[in-house]
Amino acid sequence: MARSLKFLVWFFIFAVRAWGQVEDETFNGPHIDKLIGEGKYEEAFKFIQAGLEKNGILQTYSATFFAGAGKFYLETGRLKEAGEALKAADTLAARTGIGIAFAARELAEFHLLQADFSAAATWAARALRESSSRKAHSIVLAYCRCLEALARLRSGDLRRADKLILEALRSVPEGSEAEPFFASRVLFAGCVIQSHGANYREARELCRRGLGVIEKRKIESRDVSLAHLAMAESHFLSGEMALSREQAEKCIEVTTRMFQREHQDSVDALVLLARIDRKESKAADALAHARAALDMAVAVFGEDAGGTKGPKRVLEEMEKRIAGDLKTK
Q1: What is the pTM of this model?
Q2: Structure letter (DSSP) for residue 180
Q3: What is the pLDDT of residues 24-44, one digit of tens each?
Q4: Which of 54, 125, 188, 212 could serve as a FRET partner for 162 with CA atoms 20 to 30 Å apart?
Q5: Does 102 map to a domain?
């Protein structure tokens, strides 16, 4: 009798843990994705906070909530806090085996923003493996591929980036965009990568479809900023400076309204405006935008962080070119 009771107790404990893991993998992470994807940032923060308060002592399922906190901070432009949350998520996920895929995906995004493209590609590939082993939705796998694609693009491997994004786009067929959360992100990544390959017609079509996702969902989230940013980069690459400037300015306007002016998307938009000014021979404006981008990057990333190196390099490049132009006059 005692042995039977002991067996039942251990069976109950195992069942609860197993169910908790299933609940964690199939509800908590996707629910955070959904709330943030719908622009419900305050609700997402409260859900994450409650999850950490509930699981903080046992630490069994805390990795998912720390990863969720990292995601929240990444979306809202608080990169320093994101780094701390994701470090905790990685440590806890390694210890418990729960939340690994979610943490890996957000770490890929974090390193991509920090311009550590090798680490971003590695984390994205791991996120894909972990998500695939957990039978994640095909659009989640597509998003993991698009993160690696962007990392490969930014490190100069356009061929690999193109292969990855084309594979990702197969999970977002025409007419299905309104359903999965990550569809717009995959489409905007496709727009950027196709633009770098000079496939501007295909790129604009992907952006149009991405914008359609946003309009159908009738919500305001960071996706709106990313839409303008993708279009701004696409128009810049095709030489349409006026259209690129318009989209970059809209990105800053939307980002400031939703979050605050100091945000990584505004940094990218300011860098792009500096390059547009340079193309249009507006030296003073180019310097002003490049300096503003660097100042904001320091505020968002930190003075010595990877995300600050790009704007710093752009400012130095602008100063050298403008100095050279003055010497030739």
Answers
A1: 0.88
A2: S
A3: 555 789 999 999 999 999 999
A4: 212
A5: yes
